[in-house]
């Protein structure tokens, strides 16, 4: 399988390097898209076998699977041509899939597939299983170190004082659909959880500023007619982007390895 990677930052570069060293059987890195020629050359310089550089609207012509690890505002510039070409799109900026039913409808016509890896979250398998029965409630509670939230536009615009916190403070709670409108930078994992089961209107999200934390922490609480479960993950940040957990790139690598594995584990 020919793999393309669009965006070579905290996630994309790690996946590119793993492909380059032959760590994903059956998959070869066939092309990259970067912000500009210099960034592409920098990325290629870290690879044993440099690869062609393509524009976001060209890369699908040269690859079977295109991995989107872009700044979220560029998502559609890549997604539309990949879906039009009927290829597989691996989406990390999951928040950008909200309200994009037209993109899914187009994929159904062209034969394209949209894959959301587990990324920085856990338990999507269990939520998918429970959703085959009846979900009663799904809540994702995201707790971030105070510094990770203090500069968010919502916090500044609403004069929410996060200085000198001695205990965790609920900054905002509500349906994922509504939280996404004011916290667009923090909802990839919440949208992934929602799309696994209960949808963005019924899945509830809480965003907490927690002075006791040094890492982002996500807790998912599910009540259903088959099982009740609570799962927590604390993500060690990448050196490149403190907002992105190291496990995210590893999750993409695991997803690609699963494509050719005779043993499939999990839903
Ligand atoms: N689903 C999940 O669990 C997670 C999703 N994310 C999301 O994944 C996405 C990527 O995250 P990171 O790798 O941390 O971001 P990053 O900012 O480290 O990397 C983005 C890369 O895209 C490049 N870029 C900018 N303009 C470009 C263009 N026109 N064409 C091609 N490349 C361009 C940048 O130079 C940068 O190297 C973000 O939307 C982030 O929110 C992040 C963490 C977890
Ligand atoms: O915890 C992380 O690594 C990323 C995160 O909150 C998100 O993208 O929603």
UniProtKB/TrEMBL annotation:
Name of the protein described by the UniProt record: L-aspartate dehydrogenase
Residues annotated for NAD(+) binding in this entry: 120, 188
Its biological purpose: Specifically catalyzes the NAD or NADP-dependent dehydrogenation of L-aspartate to iminoaspartate.
Biological source species: Marivita lacus
Enzyme active site: 218
SUPFAM superfamilies for this protein: Glyceraldehyde-3-phosphate dehydrogenase-like, C-terminal domain, NAD(P)-binding Rossmann-fold domains
Chain ranges of the Aspartate dehydrogenase domain: 166-253
EC class of the enzyme, as a word: oxidoreductase
Additional facts recorded: The iminoaspartate product is unstable in aqueous solution and can decompose to oxaloacetate and ammonia.
Pfam families referenced in this protein's UniProt entry, alphabetically: Asp_DH_C (PF01958), NAD_binding_3 (PF03447)
Keywords of this entry: NAD, NADP, Oxidoreductase, Pyridine nucleotide biosynthesis
Similarity field: Belongs to the L-aspartate dehydrogenase family.
EC number per UniProt: 1.4.1.21
Family matches, as PANTHER family: ASPARTATE DEHYDROGENASE DOMAIN-CONTAINING PROTEIN, L-ASPARTATE DEHYDROGENASE-RELATED
Gene field: nadX
Reaction(s) catalysed by this chain's protein: L-aspartate + NAD(+) + H2O = oxaloacetate + NH4(+) + NADH + H(+); L-aspartate + NADP(+) + H2O = oxaloacetate + NH4(+) + NADPH + H(+)
Pathway(s) served: Cofactor biosynthesis; NAD(+) biosynthesis; iminoaspartate from L-aspartate (dehydrogenase route): step 1/1
Record's keyword annotation contains Repressor: no
The keyword Oxidoreductase is annotated on this UniProt entry: yes
Domain Aspartate/homoserine dehydrogenase NAD-binding: 7-117
NCBIfam families documented for this protein: PRK13302.1 (NF009825)
């Amino acid at each position: 399988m020919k793999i393309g990677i669009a965006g070579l930052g905290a996630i994309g570069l790690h996946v590119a390097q793993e492909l380059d060293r032959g760590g994903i059987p059956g998959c070869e890195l066939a092309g990259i898209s970067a912000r500009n020629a210099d960034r592409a050359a920098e990325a290629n310089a870290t690879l044993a076998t440099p690869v062609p550089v393509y524009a976001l609207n060209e890369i699908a012509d040269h690859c079977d699977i295109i991995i989107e690890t872009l700044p979220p505002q560029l998502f559609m510039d890549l997604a539309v041509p990949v879906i039009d070409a009927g290829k597989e799109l691996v989406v990390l900026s999951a928040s950008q899939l909200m309200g994009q039913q037209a993109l899914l409808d187009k994929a159904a016509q062209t034969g394209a597939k949209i894959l959301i890896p587990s990324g920085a979250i856990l338990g999507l398998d269990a939520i998918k299983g429970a959703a085959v029965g009846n979900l009663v409630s799904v809540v994702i509670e995201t707790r971030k170190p105070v510094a990770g939230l203090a500069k968010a536009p919502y916090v500044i615009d609403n004069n929410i004082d996060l200085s000198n916190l001695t205990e965790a403070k609920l900054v905002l709670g509500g349906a994922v659909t509504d939280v996404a409108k004011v916290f667009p930078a923090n909802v990839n994992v919440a949208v992934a959880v929602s799309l696994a089961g209960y949808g963005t209107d019924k899945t509830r999200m809480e965003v907490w500023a927690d002075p006791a934390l040094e890492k982002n922490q996500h807790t998912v609480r599910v009540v259903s007619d088959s099982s009740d479960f609570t799962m927590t993950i604390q993500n060690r940040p990448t050196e490149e982007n403190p907002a992105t957990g190291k496990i995210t790139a590893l999750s993409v690598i695991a997803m690609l390895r699963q494509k050719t594995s005779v043993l499939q584990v999990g839903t």
